[in-house]
């Protein structure tokens, strides 16, 4: 369970979450990010609208994502 290992984060991480993900519901991603931030861990969070688990990466998605890193 990733929640059990948040304290071990030692490098910056980028969490991507799809708002229609049924494998990892968005609330779980939000809890993970919240816990990481509360521990001062270097985490960035990004929610994708109308995406399920493993979004369909398009040129627009890549450009949008890389433009926000």
Question: Which properties best describe this structure?
Answer:
2 strands, two-stranded parallel ribbon, alpha+beta, globular, 2 helices, 69 residues
Task: Kindly describe this structure.
The chain is an alpha+beta fold and 69 residues long. Helix content is 30%, strand content 17%. The chain has helices at 26-38, 59-66, and strands at 13-18, 43-48. The chain has a two-stranded parallel sheet with strand order 1-2. The radius of gyration is 13 Å and the shape is globular. It starts with 12 loop residues before the first strand and ends with a helix.
Topology of this structure?
Layout: E1 13-18, H1 26-38, E2 43-48, H2 59-66
Parallel strand pairs: 1-2
Low-confidence stretches: none
- Tell me about the largest β-sheet: 2 strands, parallel
What is the H/E order? Answer: EHEH
Principal-axes geometry comes out as globular
The portion of residues assigned to helices is 25-40%
β-strand amount? 15-25%
**Strands of the biggest beta sheet: in what spatial order?**
1-2
Radius of gyration: 13 Å
Structural class given helices, strands, pairing? alpha+beta
């Amino acid at each position: 369970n990733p929640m059990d290992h948040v304290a071990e984060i030692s490098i910056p991480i980028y969490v991507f979450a799809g708002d229609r993900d049924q494998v990892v519901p968005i609330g779980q991603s939000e809890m993970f990010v919240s816990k990481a931030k509360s521990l001062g861990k270097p985490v960035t969070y990004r929610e994708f609208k109308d995406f399920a688990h493993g979004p369909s990466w398009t040129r627009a998605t890549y450009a949008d994502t890389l433009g926000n890193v």
